[in-house]
Amino acid sequence: MKKWMKAVPKKFDHMGSNAKIVLNNQSGEGFVDTAVKILMAVVIGALVLGGLYLLFQGTILPTLTQRIKEMFNYKG
What we know:
Keywords: Membrane, Transmembrane, Transmembrane helix. The chain crosses the membrane at residues 38-61. Pfam families: DUF6133 (PF19629). With 76 residues, the protein is an all-alpha fold. Helices cover 84% and strands 0% of the residues. The radius of gyration is 31 Å and the shape is rod-shaped. The protein starts with a helix and ends with a helix.
């Protein structure tokens, strides 16, 4: 048991130095950068979905509805 207790501080000595390195890191990836990226992704996604909705509603669905009606009203 005493051997294990002596080994614990040696085993975790590097954690203090790693914590100092992480806390002193000033690379620049912050909360504002991440928030801007998320906001851009949401806005671009909304624009793409809005465009697809208009395309389907105005162009694709009316012709598809017309073709389906013609297919079921087949008199031949």
